[in-house]
Structure formats: C-alpha cells, structure tokens
Write a structure and sequence with these properties.
CATH superfamily: DD-peptidase/beta-lactamase superfamily
CATH architecture: 3-Layer(aba) Sandwich
Number of domains: 1
Shape: globular
Order of helices and strands: HEEEHHHHHHEEEEHHEEEEEEH
Radius of gyration: 19 Å
Oligomer: single chain
Largest sheet: 8 strands, antiparallel
Number of strands: 13
Distance between the termini: 8 Å
C-alpha cells in the first residue's frame, strides 16, 4: 500500500506537536522494504530510541525459538531454574510470558521511581528487583488472573541466557539482528550505549524534576529485563519477520498469538476493543482492522508502539517518540492503520 510521504510526515508532526523527535516506519506487506519518515526531517538518518517494553516481544521470540529447538517447553516450571521463588513449582514459562503467573511488578512502587530519580546511573541489581517484587510472594494463584509484570520477564531473560549458554545481547545479535540485517537494533547495556540515540528529555531523572537528557545519564539496567534500542524501521522489519514466518515455527507463532483477555475495560478513548495478551505481545482479536498484535513501551525520555495487522495485508507499523507522552506513538500507529484501512 503506497502512502504519500508527505502524509506520513504530517501524521508524525501533528502527534509530536513540537515536543521533540519522532519517527514512523511501515512495512506494507510480508517481506517489503520499510518506508520511514521522521522529524526533524533535517536529521541525516532515521532516529533510534530505547524501545522499552517492546523488548518483551524480543524475549518471547528467543524463548519460543528455544522451544522450537526442543531446549525448553512452555509447560516447564520456573522451579527448574529458580526453585526458591514462591510458587515456582506452579508457574510455567507460558504463564510468565502471558503475565498470568501472579508475579508482582515495580511500576507502581514509589521506591523504584525515587531510586531512579536519586541515582539514574546506578540501577538496582537482579537481587534488589527480586526483593522488591516476587520475593514478597505472588499476587494471585498462577493462572487465576492477569497482571503485567516486568520482573516475570527478568526471570525469562535469565532462563533464556542459561539455556542458550550466551548473553541476552549475543542472542539478540545471533537470532534476530544479524539474520534479518537490522543495522541499528542492539541491546543497550550501558550509559555509553545511549550516545547514538535521538535526544530524549525526561523529568524523571532528577529529584527536582528538571528536564534531563536521558543520554549519558540514564542506565538501561533500570529496565529489569534488559532493553533493546532501535529505529522504527528495524522494529517494523522484526515484526514483519516474526509474524510472517521467518523466525519461528508455525506452532510457536500460534502459541504467541493465542490471546488471553486482560480482564480490564479499555478507557473510553481507547482504540482497543478487546484488550488481550499473548506470549510477549499485546493483542486485540476484534480490532477495527481484524486481528491486531503488537506492543507498546515507555520509560524516561520516550514512548514506543508497534503493531502487526495480518488481516490488513500483513502490514507492520512502528512509531517512536523522544518525549514523554503515554499514548503518542500508539496514536500514530492507529492513525496510520486507519489510513491504510481506507486506502484502495
């Protein structure tokens, strides 16, 4: 589906509204080259950002790839690797992946946000994240409810590393970025790794709330499960390859896209009709575009959103913004899907 570049720029510019940098990329169908626009248009290359929780989709793909090789099973219990975690013998990898394990989160913890403001360059250790969350017990019996959990994915990342025998960064390179030829996607592991990213201003990195540039100040270790940095184009290409068959077996793709309702009604202005979650992906089986799979992300200095619409010609869309505004990239993605839906 060909959309005029000027129309794409207008969509991004309107959403950004002068607040900072932003980018949008579209893969119009399986295997197609991405079309990308960004602001400011004067930038010499497509901007790259921390993709925050879209990283969960990468982690899920790595675990499912290990399933395809027979190294693990989605029914394996957490106790195989972390026997001391409460209820580990009742928690499966599948439940960790779809957030039905009962793992608590740190997103609402004042101590976490205070620590980020006080020491943005010194992240909590694995042990501290554990102590503040699942070491205190489960929030509900595994499989009985749904609740988003970053620490659950912190455990999944460790499991993937142990089973594969290589680091998370190496797995990202060997299983995803190198085979797909993604030049700008990589695992951010230090403050220096952020130097080449787009400017990203945050008020969450200083006790006085004054704006600070994330680059050179924020340590990506504050994202407990690790975080990938990327351009919108590389994420859109990853989603295209993931859902169109280049990375996983059909069985694993079916498992990934088997959705469970999250048990929450969408806000009045939301475009999500039946908010659901699969294995490392958000989903909506009843969207205006048919089935919809994807993920959002957000953290200091930026927000991200990516989606794949198999019933809309297999299009993949990704938007990223270098400023803090919870729904901005998601709004760009849905606006783009609307345009594609109306296109002849």
């Amino acid at each position: 589906m060909a959309i005029a570049k000027a129309a794409l720029v207008e969509i991004v510019d309107r959403a950004a509204n002068g607040r900072g940098t932003a980018g949008l990329a579209i893969v119009g169908g399986p295997g197609q080259a991405p079309e990308a626009v960004w602001i400011p248009a004067s930038a010499s290359e497509e901007p790259a950002y921390l993709i925050y929780s879209i990283t969960k989709t990468f982690i899920a793909m790595l675990l499912l790839g290990l399933c395809d090789k027979g190294r693990v099973s989605l029914d394996d219990r957490l106790a195989r690797w972390f026997p001391r975690v409460a209820g580990a013998d009742r928690i499966s990898l599948r439940q960790l992946l779809d957030h039905t394990a009962g793992m608590s989160d740190y997103g609402s913890l004042a101590a976490y946000h205070e620590a980020v403001r006080a020491a943005p360059s010194s992240p909590w250790s694995f042990e501290r994240f554990a102590a503040e969350t699942f070491d205190k017990g489960l929030s509900f019996d595994p499989g009985s409810s749904w609740a988003y959990s970053n620490p659950g994915y912190m455990l999944l990342k460790r499991i993937a590393e142990e089973v594969a025998g290589v680091s998370f960064a190496a797995m990202i390179r060997e299983r995803i970025t190198r085979p797909l030829g993604l030049r700008r996607a990589f695992t951010a592991e230090s403050r220096d790794d952020l130097a080449g990213l787009a400017p990203a201003i945050s008020r969450a990195l200083a006790p006085d709330g004054e704006p600070r540039d994330v680059r050179g100040l924020y340590h990506p270790g504050w994202v407990s499960h690790g975080v990938v940095a990327s351009t919108p184009s590389d994420v859109a290409r990853f989603f295209d390859a993931l859902f169109c068959g280049a990375l996983l077996s059909q069985q694993s793709r079916q498992a990934m896209t088997s959705l469970v309702p999250i048990g929450q009604s969408p806000p009045p202005a939301s475009r999500w009709r039946t908010p659901s979650y699969g294995l490392g992906i958000m989903g909506d089986p009843d969207s205006a575009f048919g089935r919809l799979w994807g993920h959002n992300g957000g953290g200091p200095g930026g927000t991200t959103s990516a989606a794949h619409a198999p019933d809309l010609g297999g299009v993949s869309v990704c938007a990223m913004c270098g400023f803090e505004g919870e729904a901005d990239p998601e709004r760009i993605v849905f606006t783009m899907l609307d345009v594609l839906h109306r296109a002849p």
